[in-house]
Amino acid sequence: MDLDEAIRKVPDFPKPGILFYDITSIFTNPEAFRYTVAKMIEQYRADKVDGVIAIESRGFLLGACYAEKTGIPLVLARKKGKLPGKTLRQSYDLEYGSATLEIHEADLTPGRRWLIIDDLIATGGTLRAVATMVERAGSQVAGIFAIIGLPFLNYQETIGHYRPVTLIDYHGESV
Ligand code: AMP
Q1: 91-136: pLDDT as tens digits
Q2: Domain 47-169 falls under CATH 3.40.1280.10
Q3: Of 72, 113, 118, 172, which is least packed with CB atoms within 10 Å of its CB?
């Protein structure tokens, strides 16, 4: 399976100079979707993973597949203001300004090992915010998974100690 072929690249989205890697084109391709989910599950077969935390919104689709197929709990990390119950919050810096993610506090059972899933790792700031919440809740990060990695944005410096796993890496902003 050539995953690169299955990923739509959109130059200058959402703003000039950004090459957007759109994984929705994997979901419209059943063969690529099946391959991606199987590869994701294979990565952690030998590991102890007690639950999955999926990041809004594209991470939800992958996290839901992982949790359903392996029979473990799925917890959602959502953008600020979406979750109705009592939440843990973590803010993080974006290129311009900042963002906040929330998790229902009651869902983050202490002492568990959580696999955190998103679609793409750029600077690693989003995943680090979720990893920080996991640790604040007295749990551990079992791993970090994304389909795509952009290592030239130095995410290893931010989240390398959590051993991030990606299925395909891009090494520059070329289509
Ligand atoms: P970061 O926190 O810098 O690692 O950014 C990761 C988040 O931003 C992920 O949730 C991605 O969906 C999104 N993202 C950042 N850069 C891109 C890109 N070039 N293409 C698609 N999504 C991106």
Answers
A1: 999 878 999 999 999 999 999 999 999 999 999 999 999 999 999 9
A2: no
A3: 172
